[in-house]
Amino acid sequence: MVVGELSDRSDVLVIGGGPGGYAAALRCAQGGLSVTLVERERIGGTCLNIGCIPSKILIHSADVAHLASVSSKLGVNLTADVDMVALNAHSADVVTQLTSGVGQLLDVAGVKVVHGEARFSRPRRVAIVNDELVSHHEFDHCVIATGSRPIELPGFDLEGSTIVDSTGALSLEAVPRSMVVIGAGYIGVELGTAWAKLGASVTVVETASRILPELDKRLAAVVARRLKELGITVITNALARHAVDGAVTLEINGAEQTVDGEVVVVAVGRRPNTDELGLDVAGVSLDDRGFIEVAPDRRATSSILAIGDVTAGPALAHKATAEAEVAAQTVLGNPAAFDPAAIPAVVFSDPEVATIGMTLDAAAAQGIEASEFRFPFAAGSRSRTLDDILGFVQLVADESGTVIGGHAVGSGVSELASGLALAIEMAATVEDVAATIHPHPTMSEAIAESAHGLLGHPLHVHR
């Protein structure tokens, strides 16, 4: 191993080149600081390379393939032939376009990109290992944005060819005849749905009593109905013990049961990448789950900040990007704090789910007297034209009439999330939403319909 004797230096060192890391690097560079970004693999991180983007490409391709089985009702007869080689090539091309674009942005901003794995050797110094070369870098401020990785499940060996994690499930070379997905959170449900539409016989296994246990049960129930329509088998209250040659042994109420899958996907969550950074040397504290403890301005110490999946909260790319804005302002010496009214969450299932802010139960738990109204898409016009009436939009308001929650499940509701989040962030009242003219015919009309319902005078449904 070759060890560099001298160290480089930057005003800001960013560790991790995902959505949070590269956003922090760009903002600090735009503020006139010298910035070095360290990435051990590819710019764009998990999201662009092996997560958000390729998974949505797979989901979209699966939706297109699935049209062949439902289009005849619309007067169009289609056939579909899935070509995984072409699909994977398309996915790789899109990823390359996006990551190249980020690389160009960093280059134009003057951010120095160093490839390697960083580890703290002093409170303001890291060693960067790249193959056999070790270099050193000193900084005034460091932003940790190393993201997360899939949780490994004991008894499931990812070294074989039949068991994969969520990353491996995005790059299969052929559609398997059968698939077992361990975990019915948003990742498991998205992957299971996509592969079922592409032609696999899918079984989803979940330890909780229902799918999407982190969501409101009424939202999850709509997705569960569609999973059944797609022929996906869901096994709940089941503990996955181990898998051998595609045979997955489950424990259900103390008894063993076996389900078979040509491919087994382990999708039981993610863990923060904080265990190999040498954070103890830097004086950075972790909580009992391995998350870096930070103040609202994202500081973990006077010189080290942390954003994204390495900190508590939902592991979402847009959360990391928003935290990057706060971290950059903190580094630049401006007052800043991460204190959003709500963080939108979207599940790209079938149908999609968007959930922002409080549910009625969450409000009650905080002692808030709230009310809600749900407008079903079955009463809407755009959903009828799309021949997909499953789902609803639900608004939640406090006793003063301020919108504190917005939740939707239905076709394309991911595109409603920003409008709902804006209403909550701006403390809009139900009257504000109802008075806002929503275009017809669109799925967004359901938001206004829900507001009218909360005011006691719904238009297209009975009171």
* Overall mean pLDDT: 96
* Rg calc: 24 Å
What is the CATH C level class of the largest domain, in words? Alpha Beta
Regarding quaternary structure, what we see is single chain
Name of the CATH homologous superfamily of the largest domain: FAD/NAD(P)-binding domain
- Which residues form runs of ≥5 with pLDDT under 50? none
State the end-to-end distance: 74 Å
Task: Supply database-style keywords.
463 residues; alpha/beta; Enolase-like, domain 1; 7-stranded mixed beta sheet; 22 strands
Fold blueprint:
Blueprint: E1 2-15, H1 19-30, E2 35-39, H2 45-50, H3 52-70, H4 84-109, E3 112-115, E4 117-122, E5 125-130, E6 133-144, E7 148-150, E8 163-165, E9 178-182, H5 186-198, E10 201-205, H6 217-229, E11 233-235, E12 238-244, E13 247-252, E14 255-260, E15 263-266, E16 270-272, H7 279-282, E17 304-306, H8 317-331, E18 345-347, E19 352-357, H9 360-365, E20 371-376, H10 382-385, E21 392-397, E22 403-410, H11 417-425, H12 430-435, H13 445-454
Parallel strand pairs: 1-2, 1-6, 2-3, 6-17, 8-15, 9-10, 9-15, 10-11
Antiparallel strand pairs: 4-5, 5-6, 7-16, 12-13, 13-14, 18-19, 19-22, 20-21, 21-22
Helix pairs in contact: 1-4, 1-8, 3-4, 3-5
Structure description:
With 463 residues, the chain is α/β, with parallel strands linked by helices. It has three domains: 2-150 and 271-331, FAD/NAD(P)-binding domain (3-Layer(bba) Sandwich); 163-268, FAD/NAD(P)-binding domain (3-Layer(bba) Sandwich), CATH 3.50.50; 345-454, Enolase-like, domain 1 (2-Layer Sandwich), CATH 3.30.390.30. Helices cover 31% and strands 27% of the residues. The protein is built from 13 helices and 22 strands. The strands form five sheets. Strands 1, 2, 3, 4, 5, 6 and 17 form a seven-stranded mixed β-sheet that branches. Helix 1 (19-30) runs parallel beside helix 4 (84-109) and helix 3 crosses helix 5. The N and C termini lie far apart (74 Å). The model has no long low-confidence stretch (mean pLDDT 96).
